[in-house]
Amino acid sequence: MDELEEEEEENLSEESFEEHTPEMLVSELEGIVAADKVVNTKTKVGYIRIVFGKKMTQLKQEAIDAFVQAGGILEEYKPEPIDIENQFNRAFSQYKKLSRNLRDHQEVIMIDNLKKKNELLEEIRELVNSDETLKDTYDKFNEIQTRWKAVGMVPKTEIQNLWNNYHFLVEKFFDKVKINKELRDLDLKKNLESKIALCEKVEELLLEGSITKSFKLLQEYHNEWKVIGPVPSSNNDEIWERFKTASDKINDRRKNHYDELQGKLEENYVAKQALCVKAEEMLAEPLDKTKDWTKRNEEFDELMKVWKSLGPAPRKVNDEIWTQFKGYINQFYEQKKAHFSKIKSEQQENYHLKLDLVKQAQALKDNTDWNSATKALLNLQQEWKKVGAVSRKHSDEIWKQFRTANDHFFEAKAKHFKGQVESEEVNLTNKLALIEEIKTAAYSNDKKANLELIKQFQRRWSEIGNVPKKDMDKLYKSYRSVVDEQLNKLDITSLDFRNPGYKERVDDLKRNEDTSDLGKERTSIQKSMDKLKEDVRLWENNMGFFRNSKNAEVLKLEFEKKISVAKADILVLREKLRMLDK
Q1: What are the distances in angstroms from CA 236 to CA 38, 187, 218, 226, 244?
Q2: Is residue 349 domain-shared with residue 409, that is, in the same domain?
């Protein structure tokens, strides 16, 4: 690494270009190329290229992610060319061309410098073998040293060899010419002053703010130190220790600086490992509800923000840790896509199920068979509750259709029964009169004739029709009380009333020596009675479900009629059992 590359290495880093957009990075590179000056730009261009490559990788990955999240198949993805990438490649190709030209030019110069220094070595060698006077020889020697210092860099492979030859010939020169002590001391003193000045310059570097600049100048001062000749032996160790101590401090400061940078990279690596662990833990937590998936998406977005806020990790693990973290992110989005695809499929199926329920409700909305239609619509409502959710796009619309069909039917039903209110008052008067007639009717001693008369009263009662609900229970109790009173007086049982021929059938069964038929009859009656009792319990429980319903009164009335009939049937069955047990 040359000196200016080291200066750029401190003043610039990948972080220097992290906030640049791809367009800004291309502009930076094109500016370098346009100036046609690529000297000492290697580090800067290197960082530009690294950051640009990462941003292109990110853009391409985002394009792939967007394609997959939109429903595309990864294997079918075909990347589109990116104009800014092509623009960058053109500029970078031009930069490489300029760099090659520069290196070729510098190589020519260094080879020429090598030739010049070898020629100067030959001149020193000639001086060593020369018979000229001491004064002339020494002056020529100083002039050759000046020219030696003026020659620029040579190929690195030749530096050490040149220095060895130069040092050897210089020593040979001093041995050959046998410089007198006074001249020698003067030269040693002069060299001491030069080295003291170099020590002061090195010590000043400790105050230099730029680590790279101070290190670069230190290398220059070390080269100058090598060129300067020996100093008095009494000062040799002291001056070298002073120069070395200052140099070591600068080298230590540089080392600490890069150790600190490395430490920060390690801290970033540890933090990114923690983010990977968190992402993995989040992936392992099962999610069911949509709101949980939304929250988890926000949590992964937050993880990505934290990741971006961190600097790079050490170069050897930076790409590896990013690949690991990105893998967890991609895995989450794949799971999320699968989850919502499943929900979408279920919602579509639910939509078709509810659409079928809507069609059934619409088919029933104009039905005037109030009992069966009501039962069917209530069953449809229960089915509707069992079906899961549909998409928001259809939810309100399909519910409105279903609700409209139900409301249409129950409003029509309520209107129908409301029209009966006026006639119910007349029916109340007629039924009250009929109750009085049952009380005062002239009954004979003929049980069969009396039974027929009671049945006629019952038929007339049923034909009269409904009465106001508020009077229904009281009126019916009065009616039942009067009928039961007359039946008791006339010795007519409920069984006689409901099934007048049953007594003869029981007598036939009892006269038969085989009692199995009698047992079968008893079992059948008991099963029928248990079934009716269970129906009554169920209907009584169901009545509680209609308290807050819009058509609660109508529905309750229907169930009360059912319960009343069932209880009457239970009484008849009990009478049959008693008749069997006599």
Answers
A1: 43, 14, 20, 13, 12
A2: yes
Give the structural domain span for 255: 180-311
- Cβ–Cβ contacts within 10 Å for residue 403, how many? 14
Crossing angle, helix 552-581 and helix 392-418, to 10 degrees? Answer: 70
Q: Does 459 share its domain with 403?
A: no
Contacts of 336 (CB under 8 A, 6+ apart): 293, 296, 297
Residues listed for the chain? 582
CA distances to 432, 501, 558 from 571, rounded to whole Å, are 25, 17, 21
Angle between helices 552-581 and 516-543 (to 10 degrees): 160
Q: Are residues 191 and 294 in the same domain?
A: yes
Structure-token pair, residue 401: 């259709």
Task: For residues 563 and 535, give the distance between their C-alpha atoms in angstroms, rounded to a whole number.
Answer: 8
Q: What is the total count of domains within the chain?
A: 4
In terms of domains, do 305 and 192 share one? yes
- In the predicted structure, residue 524 carries a pLDDT above the cut 60: yes
3-state secondary structure 347-391: HHHHHHHHHHHHHHHHHHCCCCCHHHHHHHHHHHHHHHHHCCCCC
Same domain, 548 and 522: yes
pTM of the predicted structure, to 2 decimals: 0.36
Tokens at 455, concatenated: 């049945």
- pLDDT tens for 462-484 read 888 778 878 877 888 888 888 88
CA distance 3 to 384: 81
Residues 6+ apart with CB under 8 A from 59: 22, 82
Domain boundary among 464, 492, 520: 492
From residue 366, how far is each of 355, 362, 363, 370, 414 by CA, in Å?
18, 8, 7, 10, 13
Which residue bears the tokens 């049953």? 502
CB-CB contact of 393 with 349 (8 Å): no
Residue 555 has φ and ψ, to the nearest 5°, of -65, -40
Six-digit token pair at 382? 């229960």
Determine the Cα–Cα distance for residues 322 and 419; give it in Å rounded to an integer.
78
Among 180, 178, 168, 184, CA closest to 125: 168
**Residue 240: predicted pLDDT:** 92
> Are 536 and 571 contained in the same domain?
yes
- Give the position of tokens 């009478």: 575
| Distance linking the first and last C-alpha atoms of the chain | 123
- Alpha helix (H) ranges present in 36-180? 42-69, 83-128, 134-150, 156-177
- Residue ending a domain, choose from 418, 440, 461: 418
Tokens representing 205? 């570097």
Would you say residue 462 lies in a domain? yes
* DSSP assignment of 401-453: HHHHHHHHHHHHHHHHHHTTHHHHHHHHHHHHHHHHHHHH----S-HHHHHHH
Report CA-CA distances (Å) from 378 to 370, 406, 531. 12, 9, 23
- Can you tell me which residue has the tokens 């109340």? 428
Report the C-alpha gap between 160 and 276 in whole angstroms: 51
- Whether the CB-CB separation of 368 and 416 falls below 8 Å is answered with yes
> Using 50, 70 and 90 to split pLDDT, how confident is the model at 273?
confident
